[in-house]
Amino acid sequence: MLVWAALAAGCGPVAYGPEPTSAGVVVVTVPPSRSATSATITSGPFGAGQVWSGNYDCPQGNTALKLIVLEAYDYNVRALFDFYHAPSGAKGMYVIDGVLDPRSGKVRFRPVAWVVRPENYVMVGLAGTVAADADRISGRITDLSCGDFDVQLEPHR
Fold first, then answer.
1. What CATH number belongs to 41-153?
2. What is the DSSP code (8-state) at residue 94?
3. How far apart are CA 129 and CA 140, in angstroms?
4. Distance in angstroms between the alpha carbons of the first and the last residue of the chain
5. Local structure of residue 102 (DSSP, 8 states)
6. Can you give the pLDDT at residue 32?
7. Burial of 68 (0-12, 13-18, 19+ CB in 10 A)
8. For the segment 64-109, what is each residue's pLDDT rounded down to a tens digit?
C-alpha cells in the first residue's frame, strides 16, 4: 500500500496561490493498483513523482488541474487528480487509474476514490492522447457535461 501525505488546507502536495495559514497533515492510504507491483516504470511516458499541469472545463468553468503520478508500471499509471477552481475556491483531489495504448498514444483514466472532496463535485475520468514528444496530454473529460482538458509535464525539479 502507498501512503500519501497531503496538506489538508491546500488539498495536495502542490500549492495553488497563497500558502495556507494553518495546514494540518492528512495521511491517506491508497490501495495498490491491480496491475502495478512496483513504482518503477518499464515503458511509456509516465514515472512516479511526475506532475502534469494544466486545466479542464466542466460546468463550474475552467479549473486548474495537476495529475500527480503515484506509480507507473508498463502502460498502467495511478495518479492523483488534484484540482482547484479559483472563482469558487473549491479544491479537491482523488485517485485515478490510467491505461495507455502504446500504439495509438491514447490514454484513458478512470476515477477510483476521493482523497479530498469539495461539496457538489463528482469524480470524472479523462480520455486523451499523449503527444509524440511525451510532454503533453490533451483530450476530453469523460463526463458528458464537461469539455476538454490539457496538461503538460512539468520539468523535473
1. 2.40.128.120
2. E
3. 10
4. 26
5. T
6. 52
7. buried
8. 999 999 999 989 999 999 999 999 999 999 999 999 999 999 999 9
In whole angstroms, what is the distance from residue 19 CA to residue 79 CA? 23
pTM of the model: 0.76
d(CA 41, CA 65) in angstroms, rounded, equals: 23
Delimit the domains of the chain by residue range. 41-153
Q: What angle do CA 22, 89, 82 make, to 5 degrees?
A: 80
pLDDT band at 21 (very low <50, low <70, confident <90, very high): very low
3-class secondary structure, 42: coil
The whole-number pLDDT of residue 44 equals: 78
At 37, the pLDDT band (50, 70, 90 cuts) reads very low
Which residue has 500549492 as its cell numbers?
A: 15
Q: Which pLDDT value is given to residue 10? A: 32
80: part of which helix (H) or strand (E)? strand 76-85
* Closest listed residue to residue 53, CA positions, set 157, 145, 147, 136: 136
List the beta bridge partners of residue 140: 127, 148
Q: Tell me the three state secondary structure of residue 143.
A: coil
